[in-house]
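lol forgot to send this yesterday, sorry. struct tokens for the thing we talked abt
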């Protein structure tokens, strides 16, 4: 039968010719056709099918072959210029120069190839972290498996917020809706249910099917997998669910545009130099051609794009190590500019380890002792242990029944499965000696309305052995009291008291139901309930969140708590966390009553928002953005997606977040922890600083070389550095040194300065000034050494060697100026964090010694050995840059900030 299945299984592509298509068959027929059962497949059968059908993933787009990637490195205007230069110099019989140019081009391509590969593999590793999982029944047991392991015939359960893991034929569904825009273009969610559809129904009208990659926006359901991987509808359409992301960000684009502009300008300048040299000074054409090539090579920052890309890739990697998984690369840059973080409370700022601390029942307020989920503790009244009263037991029993969680003990530790709020009620039940399994056995559940954040309640219908029916509802007290029509003032007073201590408060109510009633709907929730009592649950703040909030404060970043919890609870927790403005709280209802203008005024000064729903999050983001803020916003639910998309940095929770939220976010927080957001911001600032440092380092070097060539030609001098020597400096030494900047650790002061202005151009006036200033120092130094050497009777080749070494040593010293934007360059100069910089310096010094003294290098680059005095002179002149730039930093800081 099983082999027959594999052969007979209708190929979805041909299903229209063969049996009726899946959506036109009943659930039982589909299950039978796939040889499945409601108990799911056996592990063995599933493995067999996996081997036959392959993993449930779309065949990825073929990445370009290594050869193509390598050849792509040559696709660059500068390289074209260099290749042309190699050909022309060969034509002129300058074989060595021609070979050196060609060799440098190839070495450069290899470096680019390796760095790009490194960056790409960093991204691949990140993508792998975002794999999807699915809730599937195998061997009669529900289990969570990686979605890739699904096979046709598997029984899968999906619920609101999930991404459908494979094509499913529903067997059951409750208030289920899916959004299928990715397949049908229709952005409104469509209703789903198990009833078969018309044979000719279009994709969007197949209500009994869910398609891989679409989103569940409401309800829950379970179905049998009918197609996986490339066989699914999405696979057949050929759309890739997650497009492969390129290493690209606004800043990289800005730099690429700048690079193109610069290249065009330099080529013009080079042509001008050629013209002036040949016509005005009477240099020969071949001589001037090499000078013009030298100028082009000198001025174009060829290493810069690769360095920027590597800096970003390293940033992404480091963020992932600190639990922030970047889904869209521009986020790395934006993170550094974030000025407000709007965050959920439960589980992000708090530990989400709930413990019932107090109970309000029968006009009394009890205290509960014990910690965590361990069912050990007492019920106290006025500090004295009490036996549980009948009313108290009735309350606890309701909390146990209207509950989907379970507890288990493992190696002496009590652990919760399911919602921590509900698990805490189970621990409480055990403390009053109610056995969850026995109670749940004698009060069978007939139906339920699952908890949804928007409704803020959960209800269950139970029947005992005699058929007696009872409905329990638990949820936000305001909501439950409304259902009970209670006008009793005692409950609201108790609620305020418990919430004021930072406890999350749940109310529980119940009413009887006839034995014949077997299903629940929202209309059943309207009235007739009687309150049984209130539970007060403690959820302590995360210690690291307290520290992270303080760090954000120092870094000029506002932190706003946006929670579904009660205002008083939120306010008390905000106080414990040290949020800046927690004197007043705005609730969802307050926000509804405000116009956008009012909201944008108040949103700035209030830090606690309670009883909010996802629409409020969206309005808040817009209000803050309207005030020029860069907003990071966290979210977990399916309805948080619009707010996450609107935010400058949408952050989805990795653990409790829905797939819908993860799709919408640019970043996923692997540990759901607020402290990780603060780390990511810090890392974002570091990346931005390092990008800036790379630019600050590379551009002046190019400027210095370019001015040297231009000045030489303008004054009718021979070039102090030849074209091939410039090529050596730029492509070998500059890149080696600049690469060290990509690894620079964070500066200590980085989280003590305000966020950078959103949209502030990186290529600022300051940067241009620095480029010009350093370029001029370099020109003076290089020319000075060259002319001095010539003056003292040194031959041209030796004088040039001294000029080259001066320039490279200038770079070495300047690297240490650039390493620190704000703090002293001497800070941590010999610490571990400076290792990469020293390694780069050592490498470059070895290169320079070879360049100067190794015979084959002398043959290639026309270099000559230098005397010890010459080396000392070059070093002394080069060292001046360090002092000059530090003096310049002091002066500009005084001028700009007056400090
Ligand atoms: P955030 O994560 O945004 O800080 P939250 O997770 O605390 O907010 P929700 O989970 O939406 O907010 O909970 C809102 C309210 O719903 C809670 O204050 C509580 O009264 C009620 N509630 C929470 N969990 C349950 C549950 N499992 N059953 C019934 N009611 C619940």
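and heres what i got for the seq, position by position
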């Amino acid at each position: 039968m099983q082999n027959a299945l594999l052969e007979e299984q209708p190929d979805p592509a041909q299903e229209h010719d063969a049996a009726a298509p899946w959506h036109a068959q009943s659930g039982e027929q589909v299950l039978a056709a796939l040889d499945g059962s409601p108990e799911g497949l056996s592990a063995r059968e599933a493995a067999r099918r996996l081997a036959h059908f392959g993993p449930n993933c779309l065949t990825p787009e073929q990445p370009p072959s290594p050869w193509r990637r390598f050849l792509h490195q040559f696709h660059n205007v500068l390289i074209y210029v260099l290749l042309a230069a190699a050909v022309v110099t060969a034509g002129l019989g300058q074989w060595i120069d021609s070979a050196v140019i060609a060799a440098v081009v190839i070495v450069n391509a290899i470096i680019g190839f390796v760095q790009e590969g490194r960056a790409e593999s960093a991204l691949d590793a990140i993508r792998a972290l975002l794999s999807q999982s699915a809730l599937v029944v195998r061997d009669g047991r529900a289990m969570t498996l990686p979605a890739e392991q699904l096979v046709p015939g598997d029984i899968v359960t999906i619920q609101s917020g999930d991404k459908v893991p494979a094509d499913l034929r529903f067997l059951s569904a409750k208030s289920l809706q899916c959004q299928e825009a990715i397949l049908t273009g229709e952005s409104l969610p469509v209703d789903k249910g198990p009833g078969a559809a018309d044979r000719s129904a279009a994709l969007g009208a197949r209500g009994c099917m869910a398609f891989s990659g679409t989103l569940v926006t409401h309800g829950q359901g379970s179905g049998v997998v009918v197609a996986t991987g490339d066989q699914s509808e999405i696979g057949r359409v050929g759309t890739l669910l997650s497009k492969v992301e390129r290493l690209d960000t606004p800043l990289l684009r800005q730099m690429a545009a700048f690079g193109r502009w610069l290249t065009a300008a330099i080529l013009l300048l080079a042509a001008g130099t050629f013209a002036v040299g040949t016509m005005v000074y009477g240099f020969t054409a071949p001589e001037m051609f090499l000078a013009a090539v030298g100028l082009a090579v000198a001025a174009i920052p060829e290493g810069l794009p690769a360095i920027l890309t590597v800096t970003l890739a390293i940033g992404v990697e480091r963020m992932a190590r600190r639990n922030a998984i970047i889904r869209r690369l521009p986020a790395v840059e934006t993170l550094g500019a974030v000025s407000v973080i709007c965050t959920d409370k439960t589980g992000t700022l708090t530990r989400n380890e709930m413990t019932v601390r107090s109970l309000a029942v029968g006009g009394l307020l009890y205290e509960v002792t014990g910690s965590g989920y361990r069912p050990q503790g007492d019920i106290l009244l006025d500090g004295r242990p009490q036996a549980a009263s009948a009313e108290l037991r009735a309350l606890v029993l309701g909390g146990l029944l209207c509950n989907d969680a379970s507890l288990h003990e493992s190696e002496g530790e009590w652990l919760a499965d399911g919602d921590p709020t509900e698990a805490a009620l189970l621990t409480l039940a055990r403390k009053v000696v109610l056995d969850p399994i026995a109670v749940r056995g004698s009060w069978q559940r007939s139906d339920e309305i699952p908890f949804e954040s928007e409704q803020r309640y959960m209800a269950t219908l139970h029947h005992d052995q005699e058929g007696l029916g009872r409905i329990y509802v638990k949820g936000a007290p305001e909501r439950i009291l409304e259902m009970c029509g209670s006008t009793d003032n005692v409950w609201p007073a108790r609620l305020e008291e418990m919430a004021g201590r930072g406890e999350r408060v749940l109310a529980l109510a119940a009413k009887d139901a006839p034995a014949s009633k077997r299903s629940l709907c929202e209309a059943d929730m309207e009235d007739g309930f009687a309150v049984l009592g209130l539970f007060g649950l403690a959820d302590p703040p995360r210690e690291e969140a307290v520290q992270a909030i303080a760090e954000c404060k120092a870094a000029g970043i506002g932190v706003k708590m946006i929670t579904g919890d009660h205002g008083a609870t939120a306010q008390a927790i905000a106080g414990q966390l040290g949020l800046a403005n927690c004197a007043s709280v705005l609730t969802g209802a307050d926000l509804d009553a405000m116009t956008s203008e009012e909201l944008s005024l108040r949103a700035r000064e209030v830090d606690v928002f309670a009883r909010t729903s996802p629409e409020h999050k969206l309005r808040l983001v817009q209000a803050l953005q309207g005030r020029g803020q860069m907003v990071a916003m966290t979210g977990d639910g399916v309805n948080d997606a619009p707010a996450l998309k609107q935010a400058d940095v949408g952050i989805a929770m990795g653990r409790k977040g829905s797939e819908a939220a993860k799709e919408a976010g640019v970043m996923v927080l692997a540990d759901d922890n607020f402290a990780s957001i603060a780390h990511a911001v810090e890392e974002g600032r570091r990346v931005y600083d390092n990008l800036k440092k790379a630019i600050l380092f590379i551009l002046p070097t190019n400027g210095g070389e370019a001015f040297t060539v231009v000045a030489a030609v303008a004054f009718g001098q021979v070039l102090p550095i030849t074209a091939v020597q410039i090529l050596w400096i730029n492509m070998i030494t500059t890149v080696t040194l600049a690469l060290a900047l990509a690894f620079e650790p964070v500066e200590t002061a980085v989280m003590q300065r305000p966020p950078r202005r959103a949209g502030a151009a990186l290529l600022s006036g300051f940067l241009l000034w620095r480029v010009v200033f350093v370029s001029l120092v370099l020109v003076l130094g290089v020319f000075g050494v060259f002319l001095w050497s010539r003056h003292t009777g040194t031959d041209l080749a030796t004088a040039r060697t001294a000029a080259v070494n001066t320039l490279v040593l200038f770079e070495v010293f300047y690297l240490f100026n650039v390493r620190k934007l704000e703090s002293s360059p001497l800070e941590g100069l010999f610490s571990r964090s400076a290792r990469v910089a020293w390694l780069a310096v050592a490498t470059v010094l070895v290169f320079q010694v070879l360049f100067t003294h190794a015979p084959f290098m002398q043959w290639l680059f026309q270099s000559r050995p230098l005397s010890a005095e010459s080396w000392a002179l070059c070093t002394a002149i080069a060292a001046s840059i360090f002092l000059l730039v530090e003096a310049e930093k002091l002066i500009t800081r005084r001028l700009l900030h007056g400090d």
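Residues 344-346, 419, 421-422, 451, 453, 456-458, 474-476, 504, 506, 563-566 surround adenosine-5'-triphosphate (CB under 6 Å). anyway ping me if u want another try
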